[in-house]
Amino acid sequence: xxxxxxxxxxxxxxxxxxxxxxxxxxxxxxxxxxxxxxxxxxxxxxxxxxxxxxxxxxxxxxxxxxxxxxxxxxxxxxxxxxxxxxxxxxxxxxxxxxxxxxxxxxxxxxxxxxxxxxxxxxxxxxxxxxxxxxxxxxxxxxxxxxxxxxxxxxxxxxxxxxxxxxxxxxxxxxxxxxxxxxxxxxxxxxxxxxxxxxxxxxxxxxxxxxxxxxxxxxxxxxxxxxxxxxxxxxxxxxxxxxxxxxxxxxxxxxxxxxxxxxxxxxxxxxxxxxxxxxxxxxxxxxxxxxxxxxxxxxxxxxxxxxxxxxxxxxxxxxxxxxxxxxxxxxxxxxxxxxxxxxxxxxxxxxxxxxxxxxxxxxxxxxxxxxxxxxxxxxxxxxxxxxxxxxxxxxxxxxxxxxxxxxxxxxxxxxxxxxxxxxxxxxxxxxxxxxxxxxxxxxxxxxxxx
Length: 449
Prior knowledge:
The protein is of the alpha+beta class. Helix content is about 35%, strand content about 15%.
């Protein structure tokens, strides 16, 4: 009889733990590592009072540069209920694109109003709405590649998000989201052994300019995300002075004291292969700088990679981004790369990393397997997401049998982007031709949005 009960229990588990081919944990994950599995689609339930839901709307802007305020909300993440967390909207392009729909991107701050409250050791979590990506997997796929290359990047998962606002919405399905780990103290301590270093998130800082000897002048451009100690400030000033003012001999001799040249070559090569131009290559943003120790080296960390795979709307046409130059993948004025590319040792390291990437983790076979795995994980949720186009989603992975126009659901017109399968094929062709000396490739130039 005990055996029969065990069999019955297993049947119940299979019935209750599997939905649409996606395995769901029967219990909440206990650790961040258990939560951040990029083939998981977790349930996330947001509950907000009508007053607080109205207060989520920014008062100063309806698009870029919006000032988002935290409100109190209750959330349930992967079966774990937490009350009085901080909830706000987030994003620039993703927010402005979603102005007319409910599916906004969110940032959750678990201990904003309850000191010490965490979820699996995390203090913050990002829910990105994917409204700029019909494939639904660009961001998670890019971060997976960074982790495979052993570069410090955020861990990810997916979420099926619902919203309850009493009297307005009752468990309203917002759709599929990418869940992205926040770059903050817990993240930095795990990657670098300390979260007490200097964390910066530069904005519009293509040239990484030297701004004098007063650190106050650096705050607007380099945007500190941690408390700044005098020795840390001095180190940043010295780094920018070297980039901007040192002669070639001094730059060549000293730059290795400020950054790990091998790791930075890999970081740059990854941006190049993925045609990620909404970044330090063109915009001078969407990355973090971290200095673990005041006399140590700066590490570059990726951020906001939803415009990878040639999908940055103001960086050139898709065809140009497919053909991004491997020799000069950055805009004029990217002073650090302009100077590094003059050094033979760095150029050789960079080209070596690029060649290695296209035959290993970005080989057609490897990236194809990753795409298929992530597609399988999210497909059933995409089918029920009224703010996505299922036919366009499928078209990113396979050639359609017949031409199909974009599907419109929920009054939302899906953004068109270059297809992932087209990008992989054309990017490989372009890189091979450039390395063989058969073409120069596209060098991006600064453009207005």
